[in-house]
Write a structure and sequence with these properties.
The structure holds two protein chains of two kinds. By secondary structure, chain A is mainly alpha-helical. Chain A has one domain. Helix content of chain A is 72%, strand content 3%. Chain A is built from 17 helices and three strands. Chain A has a three-stranded antiparallel beta sheet with strand order 1-2-3. The two termini of chain A are 25 Å apart. By secondary structure, chain B is α+β, with helices and mostly antiparallel strands. In chain B, strand 22 and strand 23 form a beta hairpin. Chain B has two domains: 52-139 and 146-236, Alpha-Beta Complex (Penicillin-binding protein 2a (Domain 2)), CATH 3.90.1310; 245-285 and 306-613, DD-peptidase/beta-lactamase superfamily (Beta-lactamase), CATH 3.40.710. The longest helix of chain B has 28 residues, at 10-37. Chain B has 21 helices and 23 strands. Classes of the chains: A mainly alpha, B alpha+beta. Chains A and B meet through helix 7, helix 12, helix 15 and helix 16 of A and helix 1 and helix 2 of B.
């Protein structure tokens, strides 16, 4: 019986997801554990319930139908992103909120799912070939339009995540290494340019090597390198001519600890919180950093501090293990799927989770710049929780139907 | 060309899984770094963040006199505290006006406080008045990082001043901070002179800490771990002095009304306890409690009258004739003379081609009479018979040329010359015995403090025991709840009773018999003994000396009086000593002493009355 169930029910994804959501609820409760904050936890609990419903719906949704409605859904999401730009509520400086009849939502969270499904649907068409420039442009368009709309909110963090999370799909779908290298090269060189001439030269060498290795023809490689070089140099020129305060802003973005009382405050406090947790942590609801509100808005972007401080290395690594297990399982599901749409979508989902996890936890521990994105399943926030649980539902769905073409 | 086979190839699957594992590894390594490698450092930071130690200053110990009267009291003093990290610069003008402090001065305080700790409260201004406190309290909600604490400051409820003995405490200086050890922090008060300094570790107590949790804005959320880690402050120990504060006040006022500059020390000859120690001119120690304005401090230091200078312990003048008993003891003990030995005083003494004159011609004189009449010639002669080295030896026995070991602070070693001293000073063979002639009568290159003198006369009073003079008799140990006696060594002189008897008899006659030089030191109804001295001063008027003790048979008070530039010991110093002795003995005994119908001399009675009204 269990063997039979195991064949059709993705226990791994299901329980890893439940574990992460559970840890999230525990963490949100702790992070908001003081007078009048119980409402936050209650809402998150309700959303988790809602997420569970979405998870089940998605787990049993017919894949063919999903594939068919992927593109219309994507168009609908684009429309919602547009609407939110016009009528959306402004929260912490960006118009990303959408509210009616007492319900609010962040369309960008759902747009992630829709974009993944649309891209997966496009890439899995038998006629699509990523060596076809027109197809490549369409694929890029599917990604870039929502990015542009999200940038207009403006929400840089989500836009960056959007961009990075789609690379695994392209990779999985068979994009030539050269294409990926050509996308990566300008990014790393631009980043290098901000760290000074030595870093610029180093990243240029790296980019050149990458392009050379993956080249399919010399001309394209040379053009890509030329573009990369131009971008690198112009970034450096622009940076050098910037007023000092803007340079400082960029410098603190890259290294928040340069400004421990300002931009870097959260990171410093977050590192203190995690580091002070030690091996087994200070105990649930005993984390001084957490309980005394040293980390502003901890229940959203800096939620990882809670398991880190209160459950220590044990808690922190449990979270990482659950995530990693879910991610590896996702790749496994993609690998098993006979259906190319499902396979590509699974990788897309993994891309979303992996990007969020890396950036969010990396930021909390002070190894990546502060980009305000939530940690999937753990951070407080309904839209993200529901979207993420829905995506796990999709993974389970793909697992169940892995043998269908 | 991209081929369909490129979709989801095993290499790409492996590459993706590899990438996931790399991400996992990077995050795990970082987690390991933060939580295991840097745990100590970050944990400390988190504690600093969220735990504040509120300092609970202990109450400094009280000081009582031998009769149980409170001499040094403790009153409240309000100190403004600042947490540098929490202070909002925009509130500087308000703070500056409330504290009547220049913003620059506040800034300087803040930067010093920051060096101690940016997150812990440090003192900003001590001892603000009650009105300033009221104004400050009203504005406290506007002033983040500012608070106040109640500390103690000294107050002096009696008429006595005794600043040199009691000493004073001041805010710790940077120089002191660097060597007094971990306990002290900037802004602390530390005993810097007198008993306050010497008994600092006992008086100060131990500060306590109350640990509280604070939130990210520094607001106190509550006690930390239910106060389990709190450290209760330990009260400072009380000192119980040998001083009789009424006697002290009386002695001070005697000096004051006569405008004397000098010192007076009275001691209990049975144990060395200081009954009174006066040094004039002096100052009121209460001006140094709380905050001392720097102008006042500068004035005290530069005043030509040197009020901070403890003349009782630090002056070294020749003792004059009061020193003659040293030579007498040396001669009697060495068998060079006995009670019957007579020396003819012709009114002068010739040595080589120099003549030392005496004031009188005393004729044939024995040792008792020589002391009684203070015959110089007798002692000039004795000096050669005894020898310089033996004289030095006896001087040393009586505690000269070395510190007395008193517990009130600085003192002089004085100067007791020896052959070695002259060899160093003038060169071997370049000085003659003529140099030592004046020493026989306590003049010349001889320097003693009133403190050394009272110790010396106390040993004569008690029959030959050298005592360590001490102000503190008992310490009320608040930790054990016991009153502990402070032990002080007693050293027997090893001088025979016979010698002592002769010397004491000479001293008795000085006061009690006609022809004695200190008849003005007499106290009706009580037999006293003493010796006058006049210290020749090449720079001005002579210094007057008197040493004595009473009652003669069973002495309970020994006294040394030194009055700078005031002339003869017999006429100036002796009467003061007599009045102090009388004041002490008549009150202490508390029963009528068998004495003639007319009690105290009028002069003393009226003087005492006038002094009580105007101390």
């Amino acid at each position: 019986m269990i063997e039979y169930l195991k064949e059709y029910f993705d226990f791994k994804a299901f329980f890893l997801c439940l574990a992460l959501v559970g840890m999230g609820l525990i963490s949100v409760y702790s992070a908001t554990y003081d007078a009048g904050a119980a409402a936050t936890f209650d809402r998150q609990l309700i959303w988790a319930g809602g997420g569970f419903v979405f998870l089940l719906v998605m787990a049993f949704f017919p894949i063919k139908t999903l594939q068919r409605i992927a593109f219309p859904t994507y168009i609908l999401m684009l429309g919602m992103l547009l609407v939110v730009l016009v009528v959306g509520k402004t929260t912490s400086g960006s118009k990303s909120w959408f509210g009616f009849a007492g319900l609010g939502g962040q369309p960008s969270e759902f747009a992630k799912v829709a974009t993944i499904l649309a891209l997966a649907a496009f890439l899995s068409r038998t006629t699509t070939s990523l060596s076809n420039v027109r197809h490549l442009v369409i694929a890029a368009g599917i990604v870039l339009i929502p990015i542009a709309l999200i940038l207009a909110q403006p929400d840089l963090g989500t836009a960056v995540v959007f961009f990075i999370m789609l690379l695994p799909i392209l990779y999985w779908a068979g994009a030539p290494n050269f294409i990926l290298a050509a996308i990566f090269a300008p990014i790393i060189v631009a980043a290098g340019a901000l760290f000074g001439t030595f870093a610029l030269l180093f990243t240029l060498t790296l980019a050149g090597t990458m392009l050379y290795w993956t080249r399919e023809n010399r001309f394209a490689a040379a053009v890509a390198f030329g573009v990369t070089l131009a971008i690198g140099l112009s970034v450096q020129t622009v940076y050098d001519r910037m007023p000092a305060y803007q340079q400082k802003r960029i410098a603190t973005f890259l290294n928040p600890e340069l400004d421990p009382r300002g931009a870097g405050y959260n990171v410093v406090q977050s590192k203190v919180a995690i580091g002070s947790g030690g091996v087994f942590g200070k105990g649930y609801l005993q984390g001084t950093q957490t309980q005394l509100n040293f980390i502003p808005e901890q229940w959203t972007d800096f939620i990882f501090c809670v398991p880190g401080e209160e459950f220590g290395f044990a808690g922190g690594s449990l979270v990482l293990l659950c995530f990693t297990g879910l991610l590896l399982h996702g790749v496994h599901v993609a690998n098993l799927s006979k259906n190319k749409f499902a396979s590509a979508a699974a990788i897309g989902i993994i891309g979303v989770f992996a990007t969020h996890m890396l950036i969010n936890i990396g930021m909390s521990m002070g190894i990546l710049p502060v980009i305000g994105i939530p940690l999937p399943f753990l951070s407080y926030g309904g839209s993200a929780l529901i979207a993420n649980m829905a995506m796990v539902g999709l993974l389970m769905n793909f697992y169940s139907n892995r043998k269908d073409r | 060309m991209i081929h369909d086979e490129q979709f989801g190839t095993p290499q790409r699957r492996n590459a993706l899984m590899g990438a996931i594992l790399v991400i996992f590894a990077v995050l795990m390594v970082r987690l390991y770094q933060l939580q295991l490698l840097y745990h100590g450092e970050l944990d400390k930071k988190s504690e600093e963040n969220s735990i504040r130690a509120l300092i609970k200053e202990p109450i400094r110990g009280y000081i009582y006199d031998r009769t149980g009267k409170l001499v040094v009291d403790v009153g409240p003093s309000y100190t403004v505290m600042i947490v540098p990290e929490e202070f909002d610069k925009r509130t500087m003008p308000l703070l500056s006006s409330l504290l009547d402090m220049e913003p620059r001065a506040i800034d300087e305080r803040i930067s010093r406080a920051r060096a101690y700790s940016p997150y812990l409260p440090s003192r900003l201004k001590r001892d603000i008045g009650f009105e300033s406190l009221a104004a400050l309290e009203e504005h406290l909600p506007l002033l983040s990082g500012i608070s106040y604490q109640v500390e103690s400051k000294r107050s002096y409820p009696t008429n006595a001043l005794a600043p040199h003995l009691l000493g004073y405490s001041r805010e710790i200086s940077d120089a002191q901070l660097s060597h007094v050890g971990e306990y002290y922090r900037q802004g602390d008060v530390i005993g810097t002179a007198g008993l306050e300094a010497r008994y600092e570790p006992a008086l100060r107590g131990e500060r306590g800490f109350e640990y509280v949790s604070v939130n990210s804005r520094g607001q106190i959320i509550g006690s930390f771990e239910e106060g389990m880690r709190d450290v209760v402050s330990k009260e400072g120990f009380d000192l119980i002095l040998g001083m009789d504060v009424e006697l002290q006040a009386f002695a001070e006022s005697l000096m004051t009304v006569n405008r004397y500059s000098g010192a007076m020390v009275a001691m209990d000859p049975s144990n060395g306890a200081i009954l009174a120690m006066v040094s004039k001119p002096d100052f009121d120690p209460s001006i140094l409690s709380g905050v001392t304005p720097s102008e006042l401090w500068a004035r005290l230091n530069t005043d030509a009258q040197k009020p901070l200078f403890n003349r009782a312990a630090l002056t070294r003048y020749p003792p004059g004739s009061t020193f003659k008993m040293v030579l007498a003891a040396a001669a009697l003990e060495g068998g060079i003379i006995n009670e019957k030995t007579r020396i003819n005083c012709t009114g002068g003494f010739r040595f080589g081609n120099r003549v030392w004159k005496d004031l009188h011609v005393h004729g044939s004189t024995n040792v008792v009479e020589a002391i009684q009449r203070s015959c110089n010639v007798f002692f000039y002669q004795l000096m050669f018979k005894v020898g310089f080295d033996t004289w030095t030896e006896y001087g040393r026995k009586f505690g000269f040329g070395k510190p007395t070991g008193i517990d009130t602070g600085e003192e002089t070693t004085g100067l007791l010359p020896s052959a070695q001293y002259y060899d160093t000073r003038y060169g071997k063979g370049k000085w003659t015995l003529g140099y030592t002639v004046s020493l026989a009568i306590g003049q010349g290159e001889l320097g003693v403090s009133p403190l050394q003198m009272v110790r010396y006369v106390a040993a004569l009073a008690n029959g030959g025991t050298m005592l360590r003079p001490h102000a503190v008799m008992f310490v009320n140990n608040k930790s054990t709840g016991k009153i502990e006696e402070v032990e002080h060594e007693k050293t027997p002189l090893g001088i025979s009773a016979k010698t002592m008897e002769l010397i004491r008899e000479g001293m008795r006659r000085v006061v009690q018999e006609p022809g004695g030089t200190a008849s003005l030191a007499r106290v009706k109804g009580i037999e006293s003994a003493g010796k006058t001295g006049t210290s020749e001063n090449p720079h001005g008027d002579d210094h007057a000396w008197y040493v004595g003790f009473a009652p003669f048979e069973h002495p309970t008070i020994a006294i040394a009086v030194m009055l700078e530039n005031s002339g003869y010991g017999g006429s100036k110093a002796a009467p003061l000593a007599g009045m102090v002795v009388e004041k002490y003995l008549y009150r202490q005994l508390r029963r009528p002493i068998p004495r003639p119908a007319a009690p105290k001399p009028d002069s003393v009675a009226t003087l005492t009355e006038s002094l009580r009204g105007n101390p």
